[in-house]
Amino acid sequence: MKIRVASPLVLVAVAVGVAAPTALGAVDAHLQGTFAMRARITFVDNVFGEHRGERLQRSWTFAPWCAAGVCRAVTLDRQRSGRHILDVVVLKHRGAGLYVGQGRFWVPLRCAGQVVAHGGLATETITVRITHTELVGTTRFATGVKATYRNPRRVNLTTCPGGIGSDAAKYSGLLASPLLGPPTASFNDTVDPGSTTATFADTSAPGRGGARIVSWLWNFGDTGSSTNTSTQQDPTHQYTSPGTYTVTLQVRDIYGQTALTTRQITI
């Protein structure tokens, strides 16, 4: 009784770091977001529904393991097969602009008139190289990638004889999701009517993508004061004398994006 590949199922990949050479001329960057990928099948051997040279369009989403900068690993959620089944692979940072990971997924097979969900097991190696970047604040983000997919073998685990092939493909893609936006700086103030003291409350908001604000720099406009600046989020300042002062707040998010706001208060 021969086997036949049935509709594929997905298995979350097991991450295994593999050694790889440093990509010459590559640039490290924060790899995050959804990329629109174009692919060409470069090799196929006895894989149902595929042929060499076939062109594909897929969606790959990278979730970094760190908040900013170059992460030691990213999780790749990618569409697999013509049915766009989810495949999850952990990629490890292996050099400048280079991530490599290995995983596996189940191949359902038809044997003896029945579909065996875990009839075949395929291994895969995915290599991603960053090709284009854009500076967001002080952090460089990946905006273009090239990748290779290699499935060296698929093991038939059913009682029906026969091989179930292998395949490989090359990918390239550009960032399809928007880059993060800068924060918005704002604040409220409360002046104590019985003194020259003012209390400030930060009301700044993260920008598109929700990057966390991590620093605040206040200038109270009180040039005669030795405490004219503060890095507290919600500071209090005692002015040297009554009058009208120009207060400035600058905020910075985790990616180095900044925003500035200025307003006058009367003491």
Overview of the structural elements:
The chain is an all-beta fold and 267 residues long. The protein has two domains: 4-175, no CATH class; 187-266, Immunoglobulins (Immunoglobulin-like, Sandwich). 0% of the residues lie in helices and 56% in strands. The chain is built from no helices and 17 strands. Strand 16 and strand 17 form a beta hairpin. The radius of gyration is 27 Å and the shape is rod-shaped. The relative contact order is 0.17.
Write the layout of secondary structure elements.
Elements: E1 4-5, E2 33-45, E3 55-64, E4 73-80, E5 85-95, E6 98-111, E7 114-136, E8 139-151, E9 154-156, E10 166-175, E11 187-191, E12 197-202, E13 213-219, E14 229-230, E15 236-238, E16 244-253, E17 258-266
Antiparallel strand pairs: 1-6, 2-3, 2-10, 3-4, 4-5, 5-6, 6-7, 7-8, 7-9, 8-10, 11-12, 12-15, 13-14, 13-16, 16-17
